[in-house]
Amino acid sequence: SPETSFQRQPRGRRTICVLPPSAVEQVKHYLDDLVSWKSGAKILGLSVDRVKLLCAAGRLSEDNDQLSRQQCQSLAALIRGVAIPATRGERCETANELLRTLVPARRTDEFLSAVLDGTLALYGKDDGVRPPGQFLMNRKSVVDWVSTQRAEVVAVLSVGDAAKRLGAKSQVMYEWADRGLLRTEHGMVGR
């Protein structure tokens, strides 16, 4: 029947898989939908690193180090859909510029959530072409939002400071961390 597939393996060669025409069309459609990280970033108007963070947060899915064009376009349309007409007198910059200069990379997903739920306004006319990263945002509201996010960060101690507070040696703190009794994070200087 024309809708069944079969495999055969000639002697000393690779396996040959014969697919029915409908399966071939599905594979072509699937492969046509895949785009590189750079193309996905262009669709969204963001940097490749920010797009990777959105993928890690579950906003986009990755397949063989590529993204789905349809997912990128859907997310872009969703972001463009919350844009409102710009008002005069506000100091606005592009969303991408504000992300780059004010928003820490680890806050990318929270930033997008704030835009989508209306906490942070996105200004511009949705022409369906301009990438969301090129829409405008009020600088002051982004600065205020970032300040609020920083205030919510839990205080962190260095290993040496924690040892002093507990009256223990630093080496003991490292051993406790290795055993899982303390949670550590690696910073720019160490943990």
Q: Could you characterize the architecture of this molecule?
A:
With 191 residues, the protein is mainly α. The chain is built from nine helices and seven strands. It has helices at 21-33, 37-44, 48-56, 69-81, 95-102, 108-116, 139-151, 159-166, 170-179, and strands at residues 6-8, 16-18, 34-35, 62-63, 66-68, 92-94, 136-138. The strands form three sheets. A three-stranded antiparallel β-sheet has the order 3-5-4. Strands 1-2 form a two-stranded antiparallel ribbon. β4 (62-63) and β5 form a beta hairpin.
N-C termini distance: 64 Å
* Largest sheet, strands/sense/barrel: 3 strands, antiparallel
Helix content: 40-55%
Proportion of β residues?
A: 5-15%
Integer average pLDDT: 81
Give a quick summary of the entry.
The chain has helices at residues 21-33, 37-44, 48-56, 69-81, 95-102, 108-116, 139-151, 159-166, 170-179, and strands at residues 6-8, 16-18, 34-35, 62-63, 66-68, 92-94, 136-138. The protein has 191 residues and is mainly alpha-helical.
Q: Layout of helices and strands, plus pairs?
A:
Layout: E1 6-8, E2 16-18, H1 21-33, E3 34-35, H2 37-44, H3 48-56, E4 62-63, E5 66-68, H4 69-81, E6 92-94, H5 95-102, H6 108-116, E7 136-138, H7 139-151, H8 159-166, H9 170-179
Antiparallel strand pairs: 1-2, 3-5, 4-5, 6-7
Helix pairs in contact: 2-3, 2-4, 8-9
Summarize this structure as a short list of keywords or feature phrases.
191 residues; mainly alpha; 3-stranded antiparallel β-sheet; two-stranded antiparallel sheet; 9 helices
